[in-house]
Amino acid sequence: MNIKVFACGDIVNTTSKDSFVSSELAALIKSADISICNFEAPVSGAGNPISKVGPHLKQLPETIDLLLQSGFTMLSMANNHIYDFNQEGLETTLQKSHASGLCVVGAGKNFDDAYTMKIKKVRGTKFGFLSACEAEFGCLIENGSHGGYAWINHPLLDDMVQKSRSQIDILIFIAHAGPEEVDIPLPEWRARYRRLCDLGADVVIGHHPHVPQGWELYNGKPIFYSLGNFYFDWGCFKGSANYSYSIMLEFENKEFKGYEIIPHKLINGKTSIISEPAFDVKLKGLHLVLEKDYNTLVNQMVIDLYKTRYEPYYANALQGVYNNMGLFEKMTKLVKWLFPRYNEKARGLMLLHNIRIESHRYVTQRALSLLWEKHS
């Protein structure tokens, strides 16, 4: 009998105290031997907000039991919001999850917990799960005195992936990375996910962009670059249909056998399976673009991202440096901007945000390189 693993994308529930999964989809989730989702934010009621750039997200405590009732067995918590309400918020979320019998991967109350591979044995096959996110706020880059989530580029993870074969039969790597609201993965993340496969991962499952991206088979191993939102009722996604997809992976005799793409959207407040030709065509296109015209499209995408998201920030940060100022004033202004300790806390956090988080750095560097080549 084949073993099935269900996986979906980002979940934030701020409003629903009843199930937000349709009965048809819940039945499918329950039919899997293992079902995992990205639990995008801590539960409300504990902890104070950390200093960071961007919103602080939290979700209803009932969300954990609702996911359990819908058939989920595992929560991936390596994401950029799980530490939004500090150690107390994270530990409360972990305690509630464990009390409900849900397995947690990718985050923990300390460094070792966050970097622990979780093992599930199903009918003689041992599955290992690792989960990690890029270096946003809450990332455990170094072993300190607090918790957080695993960093996707930590050398420790490479070692763990390589050595996993001595402990398990199948390794599934959950990745949370990439620019938000774009439907093509960056080359740097594509290379990283492929490298994880080279090291020993059998499947890589991505999310964080909040929209679906394509998938590919790399040396026979599936990589799903972004599943998009499963249920997300906060911010600009509140009231959105959240068109996206989940996957059902199949394994037989300790080997990967295939996968099913499960398109869904929000209908009457519940994530529901859909069959819409237009969305099927879109998903197929996202899949095919990784094989055709990828370089041209991704280069245009990063230039657009840079001009709309990043260049305005940099321009604003430097405004006035060369306008009606003497040389000494110009240099003083520039130094204060470059070195956060001379500047406002908010600007320092924004500088850290754009330098440390890989996706921001990748986009800026790639776009500037392309623009430099174009004008040289």
From TrEMBL:
InterPro entries, per the entry: Capsule_synth_CapA, CW_Biosynth-Accessory, Metallo-depent_PP-like
Residue stretches making up the Capsule synthesis protein CapA domain: 4-234
SMART domains xrefs: PGA_cap (SM00854)
Domain of life: Bacteria
Family stated for the protein in its record: Belongs to the CapA family.
Protein name: CapA family protein
Organism: Candidatus Desulfatibia vada
